[in-house]
Amino acid sequence: MKLIVGLGNPGRKYEQTRHNIGFMVAEQLCREFSGSSPSKKFDGEMSEIRIGSEKGLVLCPHTFMNSSGKCIRKAFDFYKLNLEDLIVICDDLNLATGRIRIRRGGSAGGQKGLADTIAHLGTDQYPRLRIGIDRPPAKWQVVDYVLGNFNEEERPEIELAIMRSCDAIRCWATEGITEAMSRFNSNAA
Predict the structure, then answer these.
(1) What are the phi and psi torsion angles at 120 (to 5°)?
(2) What is the rounded distance in angstroms from the CA atom of residue 14 to the CA atom of residue 6?
């Protein structure tokens, strides 16, 4: 069983914001893999999918980005998973818009949802898929930028990144993280 967590903020106000790219990928995974209707679990919403022969649980924490770890830890413990069976999907200011990067583990790199997950899991050694949203324009505050919507020029790149992220999750779930990193980290957005 795989636990796939899309990070974001709950509520209509945040639906299409840069910070909610993890939720967008989670929604697309559920469409692509015929996910069950979401149920409220672990302070979030969870759907079941099947990727090949692998059962997947798609979780969107409703604890807000900076407190995502609490929700993730509850689900992780309930299903008695190994760290390699968890992947967290989030935005990344340090990657160009639309670029994706998969890692086995590592620092949060300033991403507060990842930092809270590290704090709750007690380790930074869990897989993550980061999707680039680029740095804010000059004179923009980071919080205003990440909580803002994608502009028209970014939309095609983001739609492609969402689809590539779903392909990367499929690869991770069925062929492993080494193959997913090899296949998806080498390609530009």
Answers:
(1) -75, -35
(2) 14
Identify whether the C-beta of residue 116 lies closer than 8 Å to the C-beta of residue 97: no
Nearest 5°: phi and psi at 66? Answer: -70, -5
> One of 2, 18, 19, 120 is an active-site residue; which one?
19
As a 3-state breakdown, the chain gives helix, strand, coil percent values, each rounded to 5, of 40, 20, 35
pTM here is: 0.94
Structure tokens given for 76: 């992780």
| Tens of each residue's pLDDT in the chain, 189 residues | 999 999 999 999 999 999 999 999 999 999 999 888 999 999 999 999 999 899 999 999 999 999 999 999 999 999 999 999 999 999 999 999 999 999 999 999 989 999 999 999 999 999 999 999 999 988 999 999 999 999 999 999 999 999 999 999 999 999 999 999 999 996 544
62 as an active site residue: the answer is no
Question: What is the identity of the amino acid at 66?
Answer: N
Tokens linked to 81? 């998973």
